Amino acid sequence: MVEVDVRGFSCPVPLMRTKKALEAEPEAITVLVDSGTAKANVVNLLKDSSYDVAIEETAEGWTIIGKKSS
Amino acid sequence: MSGRRMVGPSAWVFGAAGAFIGVVAAWLVSQGNPGNMGLCIACFLRDTVGFFGGTKANMGAVAYIRPEIVGLMLGAMAASLATKEFRPRGGSSTPLRFVLGFIFMTSALIFLGCTVRAWLRLAGGDLNAVYGILGIIVGVTVGALFLKSGYNLGRSVKLPAPVGWLGPVLAIVLLALALASSSGSAPMGFTVTKAKAFATGTTPPAVFLKGPDGKPATILKPEGATLAEDGSVVGADGAVVASAEAVAKAKPQPGGKRAPLYIALVAGLVLGVVAQRSRFCSIGGIRDVVLVRRFDLLFGVIGLLVGAFVANLVLGQFNLGFENQPIAHTDALGNFAAMTVAGLAAVMLGGCPFRQVIMSGEGDADAFAAVLGMMGGALFAHWYGIASSPKGLSQYGWPALAVMAVVLVAIALIKRERTA
User: Fold this and answer.
1) Separation of alpha carbons B84 and A29, rounded Å
2) Nearest CA-CA distance, residue A35 and chain B, Å
3) Nearest-neighbour CA in chain A from B100: distance (Å)
């Protein structure tokens, strides 16, 4: 499980760091975000990279969990 | 790498949002906004500053609180509250964001338009905008190199709720002042450019309203002046303020060209909701292509261009060429360089000025600092005569661009994180 914490960063850092983490093609990835824009961008990137996405709301934002779709 | 889409279904959302924004912007011109300026964040923030800076900062012709700005912020606030995305946050190099906003605005006023208006100008047939857009692409590419080498402004943190409300509170104060001045009174001596006012280019200018016959009717400035029989404006002391020729050649003041207040306000609110939900960004589209090879956001600016272009054709507002374009000059190199600096400043901020206004409505105090920086930049650019005029760049245009480019590179080097 790869974890990426991009809370507090403005565009495009969340997207850049998530994309970098995806280069290793992990089976599962967790991304912590705290802005709606970062959430939407990361979710789109994961979906377009063939991951199934689940989103959990936390006190500080959202936890995005991506699992490689079979 | 297995099956990564560079264009996902979200491209449709961005494209539709961009097209909608473009159509509304072109329509606002038909409702009275200045040419190719249905929506311009730089111009509208500048006009709003003119209301406060007034004639002291050479902003008499552009002194008008643009209700679109108020609407954008409040629309974004409502949308973010409804979707639980309103989060008071800040602290990510806040003072530097003020500086970046300041630089963005100053360079945008040398081009005469922000990164949104650049596309709207092209959609109206203004070919000078092509040089501006090329500049944006170069500026964004340089910014992408900085980002790749580890530039970022650091993390923001959750802040106490009142800090997040600064943007919406400013919007409400502006709305109150706009409503007060639209009732005919200029509260506490603020400068208000009258709707449909004309001004001569002579100094001091004669400002007047035209009657139904197209001839000057009400003289607003200077005090006590009258219209002589030969068509000239004569001051209270009997001296000619403006010749008949100057009066005949008088042009509408930019701040006097406006859609009705409620139309502009409602349009702003709707665009604020659309922009908050879609996350449309006039800079992000190009940035994401250069930096992460994602094309979704690019459909936003393509949509903006196509939407405004079609609406301009339908409304009879399309006028192809370089010369005589509304609120534009023909200095190709100046347009290119100004938007290179503006594009770079916007990438370093993390989004275009439109986004900064929207995020201010979402409780982002850093974006609000950028908006304040833009307002400060507008005041400075007009006060010192750095802003361009339709005649071209001012004598301070090039030196200002050079200084700003150096400051941007310095900020990029200082805020470099080596671990990235």
Assistant:
1) 24
2) 7
3) 14
